[in-house]
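Bit of a strange request maybe. I'm writing a small parser for structure token strings and I need a real example to test against, not something I typed by hand. Could someone generate the tokens for this chain?
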Amino acid sequence: MNKKVVRLGNVTLGGDHTPAVCVSLIGKTKEEVLKQAEGFREHRADVAELRADHILSEVRRRESGTGEACIAGLLPDLRKALGDTPLIFTIRTKNEGGELEITPEAYARLNTQAAGSGQVDAVDLEYGMVEAFRKEKGKDLLATVKSAAVAADVPVIASFHDFEKTPSKEELTSIFFGMEKTGADVAKIAVMPKTAKDVLTLLSASETASRDLSCPVIAISMGKLGAASRLCGGTFGSCLTFAAASAAPGTGSGSAPGQMDVSLVRNVLQTQK
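Reply from user aminoacidic:
Good idea to test on real output. This should exercise your parser:
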């Protein structure tokens, strides 16, 4: 297993560290997001993720301003509400299970804004959008965002999601290696299993990637079948898992199929130390 680590504020990803636990903020308004952030006082998540596609899609629906203005108005207050809890900024597109249809150019602009804001601890870039940006603009999206991210000491997570199936181990491993080649600081894959064997395929790819890549990896098998990967992923090299905070007032539900209550996930991970 590789020993390279990436730091999100006071949380370390990679190496021999226990996987960090992340809970997503999925509010559609600034008020909802901040209320969910306050819920972090009620549970023990290590990391927060702002799923900005939810609030950005609502801004577009209401025609209530620009995405840039929304992000600029939200991030300072969110940073204050979270205190020292690390924050990942994520725009999940509809192509990968999110709420927002967005052009590669706008996607690049908003992520660059967040990366350079000084208010986030990491940005998540979809691997597919990196490829789309290259085709549309002839430029490297990850390099474009990293120019702002490096100046702010913000790592970039490259991510790939398949809500329909689990690709072969060879395909998954190739994607992991491709992410590292683009310059990602962390490589993340989340896929949907159809059988128990699919879960093993994902975990096997995670073990190989975590051993052979220099960057930390995140590997998740979604849905009910894949729930075990959220608890034992660390054994196979995954450095972060996602959980739901439905038990905490105002936090909402999980952001992807198969997420379990954050308290349960934390307790299981503690027994593995």
